[in-house]
């Protein structure tokens, strides 16, 4: 068993709902770009490597992050989170250990909250863990579907939810930990037959779960996993953080 931790950060999106030509991860929260918060948290976890997935205006993102110790891979066509992570294969597929996936537009996540979840995942040599949160309003997020024993069954994106699933308050944070040796072979098997016609990283959880147990770990402070999709959300977060 390897306890080595690698980190991948998804930062390729345009963020069309931000109504700006600036890449979403370069928008500022309290004077600092969103991606800086995430990279600082990543460095506090002392990973073996950090890989940034860039895409929209990638030269701008690379220039902004050049002082960090990171590898870059490009997702030139934004075909979903699963497709984004697949771009890391050339760098990581022969590495041992585990890969933590973070999102470049989720600035509040803290290393203190992640550390016990990562430790639990590695100590138990899990193949896949998703970080979840319980929120009062789950609109816009993928829902965590558990079986009658409370074990993770699947993750359903909102546009693919039925009425019952829409009422679930436990959400997917977009933060995952995978055993590297299990991740990349399964990534090649996911399909895009969903409402978005995208390759969802969440579908990998279901594929791995058919072979061995996968885990869902609830983060204590749900505000840490709030993502930024609009200028209004950015403004709200700035007001809450000030």
Q: Mind sketching the topology for me?
A:
Elements: E1 5-11, E2 28-29, E3 32-33, H1 34-44, E4 49-54, H2 58-64, E5 71-74, H3 81-86, H4 89-92, E6 98-103, H5 111-123, E7 128-134, E8 143-146, E9 152-156, H6 163-166, E10 170-179, H7 180-187, H8 202-209, E11 215-218, H9 231-241
Describe this structure in words.
This protein is of the alpha/beta class. It has a single domain, classed as Spore Coat Polysaccharide Biosynthesis Protein SpsA, Chain A (Alpha-Beta Complex), CATH 3.90.550.10. 30% of the residues lie in helices and 24% in strands. The protein contains 9 helices and 11 strands. The strands form 3 sheets. The chain has a 7-stranded mixed sheet with strand order 5-4-1-6-10-7-11, sandwiched between helices. Strands 2-3 form a two-stranded antiparallel sheet. A two-stranded antiparallel sheet has the order 8-9. β8 (143-146) and β9 (152-156) form a beta hairpin.
């Amino acid at each position: 068993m390897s306890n080595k931790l690698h980190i991948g950060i998804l930062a390729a999106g345009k963020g069309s709902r931000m109504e700006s030509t600036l890449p979403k991860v370069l928008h500022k929260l309290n004077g600092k770009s969103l991606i800086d918060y995430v990279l600082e948290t990543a460095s506090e976890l002392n990973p073996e490597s950090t890989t940034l997935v860039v895409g929209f205006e990638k030269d701008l993102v690379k220039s902004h992050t050049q002082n960090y110790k990171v590898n870059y891979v490009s997702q030139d066509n934004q075909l979903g989170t699963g497709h984004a992570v697949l771009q890391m294969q050339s760098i990581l597929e022969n590495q041992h250990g585990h890969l933590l996936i973070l999102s470049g537009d989720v600035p509040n996540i803290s290393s203190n909250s992640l550390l016990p979840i990562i430790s639990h995942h590695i100590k138990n040599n899990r193949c896949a863990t998703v970080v979840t949160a319980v929120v009062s309003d789950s609109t816009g997020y993928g829902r965590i579907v558990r079986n009658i024993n409370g074990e993770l069954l699947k993750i359903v994106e909102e546009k693919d939810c039925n009425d019952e699933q829409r009422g679930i308050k436990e959400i997917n944070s977009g933060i995952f930990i995978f055993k590297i040796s299990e991740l990349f072979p399964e990534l090649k098997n996911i399909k895009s037959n969903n409402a978005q016609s995208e390759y969802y990283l969440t579908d990998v959880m279901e594929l791995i779960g058919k072979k061995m147990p996968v885990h869902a770990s609830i983060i204590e402070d749900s505000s840490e996993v709030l993502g930024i999709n609009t200028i209004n959300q950015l403004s709200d977060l700035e007001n809450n953080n000030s």
